[in-house]
Design goal:
By secondary structure, the protein is of the alpha/beta class. It is built from seven helices and nine strands; from the N terminus they run E-E-E-H-E-H-E-H-E-E-H-E-H-E-H-H. It is globular and about 45 Å long.
Length: 212
């Protein structure tokens, strides 16, 4: 059964009410954007403290930022997984080591244009690989079909390395059925804007029951 992450943004007016009444989800996925790596800016880091105080659900921080080092100390104690982007021009090993120093999980996100072979050398150190189904920065984009191929290519390395495959961006009930090899489906609007969000969560969880 799939694990489900509900995606929220670290907006200035963030409220936990957005998650009220939701059940059976596995992670809270928080998007942080610096206005540089992507055009949007969502930098209310207090979001993590609020979530940690109100939920026992594991928190994934998805840092769409140029310099992840600027954020580690500020939020690391409130989360379970610190996820940064491969496309930054930075020292990946130093970032990974710093996250592990706090005994937290390490996530690496890749944009649609980044090919799987470029991250293979880091898989031994990762707990989650996030494959973006859209170009990062804003919600509501259409899912890019090649995402499925990338998931299927990445899953071959799970025989050697121990990590989860997460897909974020444009995920809906239709393409979820194609993402057989993904461990985590991350969704925002498909769940949060649904008339019966808990039913959608359950359908997402069961989307691979005909696959495995």
């Amino acid at each position: 059964m799939k694990k489900i992450a509900i995606s929220v943004h670290a907006t200035e007016n963030f409220s936990i009410n957005i998650l009220s009444g939701l059940k059976n989800f596995d992670y809270i996925h928080v998007d942080v954007m610096d206005g540089k790596f992507v055009k949007n800016k969502n930098l209310n880091l207090d979001t993590f403290r609020i979530l940690k105080k109100n939920f026992k659900t594991p928190i994934i921080a998805h840092l769409m930022v140029v310099n992840p080092f600027d954020y580690i100390e500020k939020i690391i104690h409130y989360l379970d997984t610190f996820m940064f982007h491969f496309e930054i021009d930075n020292k990946y090993d130093k970032i990974i080591n710093e996250i592990k120093r706090y005994d937290k999980n390490v996530g690496l996100a890749i944009n649609p244009d980044t090919e799987i072979h470029r991250i293979v050398g880091y898989l031994k150190d990762l707990n989650i690989v996030l494959i973006m189904g859209v170009n990062p920065g804003w919600a509501g984009q259409k899912f890019l079909p090649n995402t499925v191929n990338k998931v299927n290519e990445l899953v071959k390395y799970k025989n050697t390395y121990d990590f989860y495959i997460d897909v974020d961006g444009g995920v809906n009930l239709d393409n979820a059925k194609q993402l057989i090899n993904a461990d985590i489906l991350t969704s925002s609007s498909t769940i949060l804007k649904a008339k019966n969000p808990n039913k959608i969560i359950q359908l997402f969880k069961e989307s691979d029951k005909n696959g495995h």
